[in-house]
Amino acid sequence: MHTILICDDDRDIVSALKIYLTSEGYQTVEAYNGEEALNAVHAGGVDLILMDVMMPKLDGIRATARLREEGNIPIILLTAKSEDADKVLGLNIGADDYITKPFNPLEVLARVKSQLRRYTSLGGKAQGEERQGVLRNGALVMDDEAKLVTVDGEGVNLTPIEYNILRLLLKNPGRVYSTAQIYEQVWNDPALGSENTVAVHIRHLREKIEIDPANPRYLKVVWGLGYKMEKM
């Protein structure tokens, strides 16, 4: 069973999340600041992190940045409604999703399950997953069986969200997807207020696969409509 790291300086929130998650069969590890979260991840065995943004010693944003230097473990930020700037910053540095406080327990469980599905699929751990073979567009190549992406022969390290966005667009070169369509197909959630979330991940993806992210050759914006994979 998967192990979830819960990191929040509010012990009542940690206790509540622990109850929700253990009732669904998950194991949990608790931390109360970013430094404790880093130590827990380094100890091994953590499959996903629920990370508060505002914490003492090392906040959730800086902790996420440091974790992203080491790996692609799914990170879901826990934010207050007033922390919109932190949500965007968190996504920019590699967080996979965020949940706004006060949260609905069912939403937390749904987001956790969704991120774990993507992560295990990307790592090749999912059983019975349909293999789609190799997707190729110019010098951009995705081996969906091995879960590897290369550009001009060089490997590209993507988060699960970035990988799934790229796969969606690469499977359908030339087709324009709105931000709502991308969000619904990749996050498997209603697309309410999804524009900034999608845009942040697209920008991050461009930085990894484009020679010049400001003048992309692969991921094109179609103004007023959405994004597409340019046919090469």
Task: Write the CATH architecture name of the largest domain.
Answer: 3-Layer(aba) Sandwich
Largest pleated sheet: 5 strands, parallel
Rg of Cα set: 18 Å
pLDDT < 50 runs, ≥5 residues: 124-132
Highest-level CATH class of the largest domain: Alpha Beta
Name the helicity range. 40-55%
Strand content range: 15-25%
Round the mean pLDDT to the nearest integer and report it. Answer: 86
Structural overview:
The strands form three sheets. Strands 2-1-3-4-5 form a five-stranded parallel beta sheet, sandwiched between helices. The protein has a four-stranded antiparallel beta sheet with strand order 6-7-8-9, with helices on one face. It has helices spanning 11-23, 34-43, 60-68, 84-92, 105-122, 160-171, 179-186, 195-209; strands spanning 3-7, 27-31, 48-52, 75-80, 97-101, 134-137, 140-143, 148-151, 154-155, 219-222, 226-229. It has 232 residues and is α/β, with parallel strands linked by helices. The chain folds into two domains: 3-122, Rossmann fold; 134-229, Orthogonal Bundle (Arc Repressor Mutant, subunit A). 41% of the residues lie in helices and 21% in strands. Strand 3 (48-52), helix 3 and strand 4 form a beta-alpha-beta unit. Helix 2 (34-43) runs parallel beside helix 3 (60-68), helix 5 (105-122) packs across helix 6 and helix 6 (160-171) crosses helix 8 (195-209).
